[in-house]
Specification:
Layout (H helix, E strand, L loop, with lengths): L2 H40 L34 H4 L10 H15 L9 H22 L1 H11 L13 H15 L4 H27 L3 H27 L5
The structure holds zinc ion.
């Protein structure tokens, strides 16, 4: 083999090797990227960025690379906020846990981060807001709990209790006839007391896992809540802020 041919052979072999090496490297990179993508989409148990198993699934950040993680829980608002799954929650604890979570997710903390991290934190934060606003309101909390237990309240849910429905009609009529502000305030207190009594019954039913009764009370709560909304509207009209 002539020297020129030998040199040419070395050059082409090297070239082939380099091309192969580059391709191989980018293939490895692609595989790693797709693995990350798959783990991010389908496996909340591992970090989407570094692929490490997440030891504490409630933790917002990966313990290894400190990158923000997708929420492990998206359906159960209690678990999302690390609260016991029950109706009678400590609202102070709810508020504290909500604030603590949101402080980690504040957009200011992600201004210098990647688009992906910004997007995860924004989605996480809006989910936490949604969870908070649902758990904060007793009626919504009860409905969420019912849904989690597999007993969703339909839109057109009514109660097969003519006596109760008659009572609600009368209360609404009574409200129509109130013009005195002090009387309106008294009516409001009465309604709030009634809502508290119903809330206690709902809690008892959930504790006994009596979903049928819980549902009936949740429907009653819906009626009293809408009466409450009417009262609040009238109070605001008269300049009283609840
Ligand atoms: Zn990580």
């Amino acid at each position: 083999m002539s020297l020129v041919k030998q040199i040419l052979k070395i050059v082409t072999t090297n070239h082939k090797y380099n091309t192969y090496h580059t391709l191989n490297k980018s293939h490895t990179k692609l595989t790693r990227l797709s693995q990350n993508y798959i783990s991010q989409r389908f496996n909340p148990n591992v970090c989407w960025k570094c692929g490490l198993e997440r030891k504490n699934l409630l933790s917002v950040f990966c313990s290894e690379c400190y990158v923000i993680q997708n929420p492990q829980e998206t359906e159960n608002y209690f678990r999302l906020l690390n609260l016991d799954e029950k109706f009678d929650i400590d609202t102070k604890e709810l508020r504290n846990k909500y604030r603590a979570l949101q402080s980690h997710l504040h957009p200011d903390k992600f201004t210098n981060k990647s688009k992906e991290e910004q997007s995860i934190s924004a989605n996480y934060s809006s989910l936490v807001n949604k969870a908070y606003s649902n758990l904060q309101v007793p009626l919504k909390r009860a409905e969420h709990l019912l849904q989690l237990k597999g007993d969703k309240l339909g839109e057109e849910q009514t109660l097969d209790d003519p006596e109760f429905l008659m009572e609600m009609m009368e209360l609404n009529e009574e409200l129509d006839n109130i013009s005195d502000i002090e009387e309106l305030k008294k009516f409001n207190i009465k309604n709030k007391n009634q809502l508290e009594i119903i809330a206690k019954s709902i809690d008892e039913c959930f504790r006994k896992n009596d979903l049928k009764q819980a549902k009936a009370f949740v429907i009653k709560m819906k009626y009293y809540s809408s009466l409450g909304n009417r009262i609040n509207g009238l109070l605001r009209e008269k300049g009283v802020v609840d």
